[in-house]
Amino acid sequence: MRRLLAVFVVLVAGLAASAPSPASPREYLVYALNLLRAHSIDRDSLDWPEVEADALHLAANASGPAGTYPAIQSVIHQLGNPHTSLLTPAQAVPPLPQTIEVPTSWTSGDVAVLTIPQFTFDPAAERRYVDAGQTAVANADSSRPCGWIVDLRGNVGGAMAPMLTVLAPLLDEGVLGSFQGPDGTSAWTLRDGQVLLDGKPQAAEANPVRLARPRPPVAVLTDGRTASSGELTLVAFRGRSRTAAFGQATAGFVTGNEAFRLSDGAELLVTTSRAVDRAGRVYDNTPIRPDHPLPAATTNDEVVAAATAWLHTQTGCAHR
Questions:
Q1: What are the sequence ranges of the domains in the chain?
Q2: Which of 171, 155, 81 is closest to 120 using CA atoms?
Q3: Distance between first and last Cα of the chain
Q4: Closest-CA residue to 285 (of 267, 303, 268, 273)
Q5: How far apart, in whole angstroms, are the C-alpha atoms of residue 114 and residue 15?
Q6: Paired strand residues for 119
Q7: pLDDT digits (tens, 9 = 90+) for 138-164
Q8: Residue of 118, 22, 91 whose CA lies nearest to 259
Q9: Which Pfam families would you find in this protein's record (predicted)?
Q10: Is the pTM of this model over 0.85?
Q11: What is the reported pLDDT for 320?
């Protein structure tokens, strides 16, 4: 589980920054430590001169970048944030664009079910993911459903903006949430189907789909593998009217990461912010409990049935 999270939680709030080419393992290590010191939300919890001295001692015999990894991981452990991690060059290689899972939909009576999988950041795959998602929403909407189920189960994270772009027709325009970091707050908003971070577009395209029955009730499905950007996508629905979550508690990585690429191809994923929903509730690395908890042994049909039954209690979707 931890490895899967580390591989897929790549970018939440920005593109990976490129490191200069250090001349020695010492410079490589110092560069990585400076990134943690400058950007981590937990940076004030450490005595950095002492931490750096200990890390340099631990990596004193390193002959290359890989030899400094244990020292970097030791500092990450001291920061105490489970969402911060170091990916080796092999772990940091994204999957082929054509292999990335895309959103799908189906309908059950007067309810549409939209599955939103994780999305590992890859510019070549983003349009494929968003286009498939737009098609899934449009196809499901053709039957004029009165309510929607958004399935985030198994969504272990990645880049948030493509997920929210696909879901734009189901989200109210305006502020969806924000990132709260030590240097300030950055709001995520939706305007005309475009996901913005502090007013700047975060996806390559807007979502032009408009629902036949706007602002429907929405049931969101979660489980223990709904993590990171999967959880942030849930946060975007928190505080929305006629919206409730069903299933099991999420994984508990409700924070924003920024990825920094190191000179050997490794990536340092630094937790830079906490999530805040539209109602002002602040989240951290603790699981989000659903509004309607269901036992882990509940079958998929039973989960969908429970969500559907709730949707049928909502205005405009009362079961006839």
A1: 2-87, 97-254+271-311
A2: 155
A3: 43
A4: 273
A5: 27
A6: 158
A7: 999 999 999 999 999 999 998 999 999
A8: 91
A9: Peptidase_S41
A10: yes
A11: 52
Using CA of residue 246, residue 251, residue 253, residue 259, what is the dihedral sign? negative
| Residue positions counted in the chain | 320
Residue closest to 160 by CA, chosen among 84, 93, 228: 228
Residues 194, 271 contacting (CB under 8 angstroms): no
If one looks up domain 97-254+271-311 in CATH, what number appears? 3.90.226.10
Dihedral pair phi/psi, residue 98, rounded to 5°: -75, -10
Using DSSP, state whether 184 is helix, strand or coil: strand
> How far apart are alpha carbons 280 and 278 in whole angstroms?
5
CA distance 230 to 227: 5
72 close to 86: Cβ distance less than 8 angstroms: yes
Using only the alpha carbons of the chain, give its radius of gyration.
21
Q: What are phi and psi of 189, to 5 degrees?
A: -130, 165
- CA nearest neighbour of 236 among 167, 287, 289, 186: 167
How far apart are the C-alpha atoms of 310 and 23, rounded to whole Å?
61
- Lookup: tokens for 297: 């042994």
Please report the pLDDT score of residue 20 as a whole number: 57
Nearest to 41 by CA among 92, 7, 82, 95: 82
For domain 2-87, the question of CATH label 3.30.750 is answered with yes
Q: CA–CA separation, 37 vs 44, rounded Å?
A: 8
Q: Give one word for 184, left, alpha or beta, with left for phi > 0 and alpha for psi -120 to 50.
A: left
